Amino acid sequence: MSSVEVRTERPEPTTSLIPTLPGTHYTDPAVFELEQQRIFQRRWFASARSSDLPAAGDFRNVEVGGESVLIVRGRDGALRAFLNVCRHRGARLCVAGSGTVRRNLQCPYHAWTYGLDGSLVAAPNLASMADVDRKEYGLIDVALQEWLGTVWVCLADEPPSFAETVQGAVAARLGGTDVIDGWDIDTLAVGKRITYDVKANWKLIVENFMECYHCATIHPELTEVLPEFAEGYAAQYFVGHGAEFGEEISGFTVDGSAGFGTLSGVDGSHDRRYYAITVNPQVFVNLVPDHVIFHRMYPLAVDRTVVECDWLYPQEVLDSGADLTRSVDLFHRVNLQDFDACERCQPAMSSRAYAAGGVLVPSEHHIGEFRDWVVTAIAD
Ligand code: FES
Ligand code: FE
Question: Basic and acidic residues composition bias: which ranges (predicted)?
């Protein structure tokens, strides 16, 4: 267990400027380890897209809370998750990030063999499997849920309520889940995936995503499409409010030109709007009339975070051979601009100038709420 001292009190603002976390929270490996244990090993974690594993034997290997988690599609069509550790002598079962196995999962060390449901199927040189409990020596299960076409896993022995902590978080941002239901995200297909390897602490990325104070400075294309963002307010935190497209804007594209048809379930009141949602600790979702942008973050080190971003469209749009470039380019540029800003901050987190942290202006108050959420989560 880490011996790091965790600041648990909420600093009282002395002006309208609200204190941030101190710099060490972005640089100290002991704080990162504590977050791994108390946040990422305890919360539901969006680990993959269900469609990444379409067929029996397909697997994905993801790092969650410092553990390697293996997600596998079984012969019964169900997805299951396991710790990626052989029960014999602890070898990693799969080192590839993804792939397909024909029948079973076989450890490359001494060839213990597991079924796709995790049970031990065979072990060489055992006189008989009859006296070996296949479940007892099977792979360790990790809790798994699917929602929004996404595979969420939780390493906790007793996971928190998915309805409250994941679906409830979305509902709180949108005034219910009816709005997001209209996008039928589980039916959409990945039109484009871009993986960003960001040299910044995961909290800098969350904090960046939560505010729009920076939009006028670093997002020229986005503020062209969503003029209210030029004023610096984070629209996602006005419950049920979507940022409206500018009058001259036809679609959510890099040049404001028309996108694709509005998704069939999206009602007319959302037709020219953009919604942004965060689900603590590592998901950001953007809803626009004709597609969805879904970010999953993988915090790998105190100063390194991989962000996997999917652009999701109806299968018909992809089948039509439509050119996605202008559609994808808008948020790809936003991502590059945001991650560049995060990487600019990361080296300065260890400066004595930031030892006591920085400040938030009033429109960034929800970053203060995120800070309090993190402090509370790592304190117990
Ligand atoms: Fe896996 Fe020995 S460590 S079979
Ligand atoms: Fe941004």
Answer: 1-12
Q: List the residue whose alpha carbon is closest to atom 2 of ligand 1.
A: 110
- 126 pocket-lining for ligand 1 (C-beta < 6 Å): no
ipTM: 0.97
- Residues 5, 44, 373, 164: is their CA dihedral positive or negative? negative
- Output the six-digit token pair for 173: 């941002």
- At residue 257, what is the residue type? S
Expressed in angstroms, the distance from the first to the final Cα of the chain is 12
What is the CATH code for 45-154? Answer: 2.102.10.10
Cα atoms in the Cβ-side hemisphere of radius 13 Å centred on 332: 15
Architecture of the domain spanning 18-41+178-379: Alpha-Beta Complex (3.90)
107 lines ligand 1 (CB under 6 A): yes
Residue-range domain boundaries for the chain: 18-41+178-379, 45-154
